[in-house]
Structures are given as C-alpha cells and as structure tokens.
C-alpha cells in the first residue's frame, strides 16, 4: 500500500471514529430532549409571553412590584411553588407560614432562581422556566432528574437591603 493511501485511510478512520464518539454522547441527546420539552411547553402555553434572557432563563412578570429591583446581597423573602413542566409540584412554601429567606445572588439557590429575583421588586410575582443548565444540571437532585427543566411561581414578599437591616 502506498504511503499516500495509508495516510488517507488513517484520516478516514479518525473522522469516522470522531463522528461515532460524538454521536454516542448521551449528554447531547438528553440536552436536545430537554430543549424539545421546553419548546413544546412554550408552544402549548403560547399565551404566556415569556422573555428569554441571555442566560437561557425564561421570565414572565405576572404582577409588577414596587420599589427597587433586588440586587446582590439583599435579603429576599419569597413564596414559591416549584413544578415540573407537566404541572406536578415538587416543592412549595405557598400555603404555609414559612417564607424562604436568603441573600440574593450569592449562590444559595439554583442559578435560575437567583437570576429571576434580580428582575423583581417587592410585591412582584413571576413565572420562570429554568433550564437544567441554570437548575440541577445533568446530575439532578433527589427526585429531580438530570436535564430536567423546572417551572417556579415566585412572589417576592419582602426585600431588605443590607444597610437597612
């Protein structure tokens, strides 16, 4: 076999192997399935005018609040309901006396939840659709599977700036 033919054959083997390895990557398959679920949800709920943020978060203000927007280090008091796209509730504090209290945008919550609060004022209510890249990622968390998009109904009940504590 000529040297040119061996190099061509080697190049072909490398290309075929690369294609096979990338097409067998399950994470790409799951990420694509998640995107399809999100698009289906948005299509099925086309009356909801979500705004897609640069991060990939889908945000819909349901009720405007008053005052200043939440900023990093503020303390937020939040009522929420977390659901899967099929409407199944996986967590909530609505209907309880508990209010989720945490510093805004300091990594205590999933990135999508933290980011959503930065678009809200005291009294705001919002619906957010959080892709797994801003949620629990490919690994998931307890009953939340990997590559699972989540819906949250959020109400920012109270907002306290660090200087006013």
Summed over residues and divided by their number, the pLDDT gives a mean of: 87
Question: Structural class of the secondary elements?
Answer: alpha+beta
CATH class: Alpha Beta
Order of helices and strands: HHEEEEEEHEEE
Q: How many E-type strands?
A: 9
**What's the total helix number?**
3
Estimated radius of gyration: 22 Å
Shape: elongated
Q: Hey, roughly how much beta strand do the residues contain?
A: 25-35%
**Biggest sheet record:** 7 strands, antiparallel
Secondary-structure map with pairings?
Layout: H1 3-23, H2 26-44, E1 51-52, E2 58-63, E3 66-69, E4 75-84, E5 89-92, E6 100-103, H3 111-117, E7 121-122, E8 125-130, E9 150-160
Antiparallel strand pairs: 1-2, 2-8, 3-7, 4-5, 4-6, 4-9, 8-9
Defining key terms:
single chain; 165 residues; alpha+beta; Chitinase A, domain 3; seven-stranded antiparallel sheet; two-stranded antiparallel ribbon; 9 strands; elongated
Can you describe this structure?
The model has no long low-confidence stretch (mean pLDDT 87). The chain has three helices and nine strands; from the N terminus they run H-H-E-E-E-E-E-E-H-E-E-E. The chain has a single domain (48-164), classed as Chitinase A, domain 3. It has helices spanning 3-23, 26-44, 111-117; strands spanning 51-52, 58-63, 66-69, 75-84, 89-92, 100-103, 121-122, 125-130, 150-160. With 165 residues, the protein is α+β, with helices and mostly antiparallel strands.
What's this entry about, in short?
The protein is α+β, with helices and mostly antiparallel strands. The protein has three helices and nine strands, in the order H-H-E-E-E-E-E-E-H-E-E-E.
């Amino acid at each position: 076999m000529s040297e040119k033919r061996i190099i061509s054959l080697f190049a072909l083997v490398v290309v075929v192997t690369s294609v096979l390895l990338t097409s067998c990557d399950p994470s790409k398959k799951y990420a694509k399935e998640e995107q399809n679920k999100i698009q289906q949800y948005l299509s099925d709920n086309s009356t909801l005018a979500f705004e897609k943020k640069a991060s990939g978060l889908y945000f819909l203000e349901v009720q405007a609040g008053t005052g200043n927007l939440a900023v990093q280090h503020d303390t937020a008091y939040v009522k929420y309901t977390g659901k899967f796209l099929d409407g199944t509730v996986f967590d909530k504090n609505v209907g309880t006396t508990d209010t989720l209290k945490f510093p805004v945008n300091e990594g205590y919550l999933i990135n999508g939840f933290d980011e959503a609060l930065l678009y809200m004022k005291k009294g705001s209510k919002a619906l957010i659709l959080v892709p797994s890249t801003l949620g629990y990622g490919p690994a998931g968390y307890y009953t939340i599977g990997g590559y699972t998009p989540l819906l949250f109904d959020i109400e920012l009940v109270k907002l306290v700036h660090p200087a006013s504590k």
